[in-house]
Amino acid sequence: MNKEIEIFWRKPRSVLREYFDGIFGQVHFRRAGKDLSNKDPIILLHQSPSNSRPFEGLMDKLSSDRLVFAIDTPGFGDSDAPVSPPNISDYAFSILEFINHLNFDSVNLFGDHTGAKIAVEIIKQTPNKVGSAIFNSCPVYSKEQMKKMMLHLEDEKPKQIIPKDGSHFVERWQSLQKWYQKAPLELINRDFIEMQRPLDKGWYGHNAAFAVNHADNLPKINHPLLVLCPNDMLWDATKASSNFLVNGSIMELPEYGMGSLSIETKMYSNILKEFYDNQKKIPIENFTTNIYEPNFNRVTKKIKKTFLNIDGIQVHARVSGVMNNINKPILCLHMSPFSSRNFENLLLELGKDRLAVAIDIPGFGESDPTDEEPTIDYLSKIIIRSMKKISSETSFDIIGDHTGAVIAMHIAAFNKSIVSNLILNGLPCFDQIEREDRYRNSNYNEPQTDGLHLYKRWNSVKMLSGTQATDKIIERNFIEALRGGPFAHWGHRAVFSYKLHETLAYINQPTLIFKPRDGLQDRTDKYFSKIKNSIVRDLPNENYGFLEYKSKEFASEILTFLEKK
Fold first, then answer.
1. Are 400 and 331 in contact (CB under 8 A)?
2. Of these four, 14, 102, 117, 473, which has the most CB atoms within 10 Å of its CB?
3. Residue range 10-25, pLDDT digits in tens
4. Does 304-443+489-563 match 3-157+203-286 at the fold level?
5. CA 486 distance to own-chain centroid
């Protein structure tokens, strides 16, 4: 894999991902560095509709001598979304919850675009918590410019009719390239995918940002402030902010545009460190705290997301239910190129009875990719170790869907003591010629400037989502499928390089095999008898996705099967 892809798609080992329970649910954040006590932590706040991922390279550089945190604003990245549009004060409150949770006396803020609006509001609410701040683009709009921005906001709002061919994503892709004028295509690809993740709530960020004006609020900020003015199509509007700075200055960066924060990480790191390290704090007695109470009820999610650290790889899992002494935990493993998100409905049902876990296979969803293209055996070992960190039970049941089914069978065959029962959606077993042919055709769907790669993925996802999928589900699955980037084909390559037919005879656990009409029914018919203790449940009226769309019905069937064993 070339160096460019490594830089933009692999998280630096210095950066770790975690969750915090906030008012809107779980808040996702990235952290790096060590607390050396003599330097205030830096809090990085992203632009809309992106998230904190573009900060990873910058965090790696900044964290050499201090703590650095990058937070996904609620509703973006992996932070849970508010049920209705929040205002900028709500966003600031959620960040302050995080800062207070970590008991920081003082922090330095970095705000990018919308992140700058949130940073200003944080300073207004708790000025004593902030030492100094840097904004990357801080536009002050004229009335005419504001009208254009509001039209942009209208374009972001969800539409009732979604194009059946995915052309709306292609239009966004082509539009984004105009903003990222000098950036590598692979960086644009990564950032484009991250920007699509909020789906129909992506407009929340700009909606909150456009409701407040820097012209009104910047004069209220007495803290040391540096405004970076890159050439990111907001040049003139950001320069206009100079008229409203009380204790600040502007640094023009005409050679740097959108994407530079991910490319010129050393340069930006040097700017931030030099500024933060040379500012005198304003005495605390000069501040008045402005208490803000959000008009939202605190949310507690029934599914908890978590990260597990396995030999330098962070594995992501969704967990529902509780441990009990009667029913074993149940592990769900997804198909490629999707993620454990497809199991959320099933987790809620299974979690009523036992501990239910769904893990993102490494390289998919939020789990880090492995260092090299993985085998089924290696993926299985990571899954087993992850499950042991989640559950203290010595054995568990597994539900495997397509790629997940292959991993489940391998675990069951060669780790008999830890797997009690198997539930498989399809039996993806192929002879050598079929495997070799499918392996050759499993390649990275590389980005193209015209967006043809998106049409290709869209058509594939429509099929894999099943005939019962709504347009919204297809959109969600489309983004999940793209998130693997250059690693998205590794799941299929692991399957097609694996001799499953040699493994089947080693499986002796009670096994329930679902046989929907998803392209694997002939494989299931041909190979199911090689599993000693298996039964097949024929589902002639189902295809892809039935475990999600009919989760209550099939959770009941799964639990009935398990209880009889």
1. no
2. 117
3. 999 999 999 999 999 9
4. yes
5. 16
The pLDDT tens digits of the residues spanning 325-357 come to 689 999 999 999 999 999 999 999 999 989 999
CATH, range 304-443+489-563: 3.40.50.1820
d(CA 195, CA 454): 15
Q: Give the whole-angstrom CA distance, residue 319 versus residue 305.
A: 6
DSSP-assigned letter for residue 411: H
Structure tokens at 63: 């964290």
pLDDT in tens, 232-289: 989 999 999 999 999 999 999 999 999 999 999 999 999 999 999 999 988 877 788 8
**Number of H helices and number of E strands within the chain?**
23, 16
All residues at 6 or more sequence positions from 32 whose CB lies less than 8 Å from its CB, including other chains: 12, 14, 15, 16, 59, 60, 62, 63, 67, 68
Query: Could you tell me the end-to-end alpha-carbon distance of the chain, in angstroms, rounded to an integer?
Result: 46
Give me the residue spans of the domains in the chain: 3-157+203-286, 304-443+489-563
For 3-157+203-286, CATH gives: 3.40.50.1820
CA dist 430 and 407 (Å) reads: 15
The residue among 13, 241, 256 whose CA lies nearest residue 116 is 241
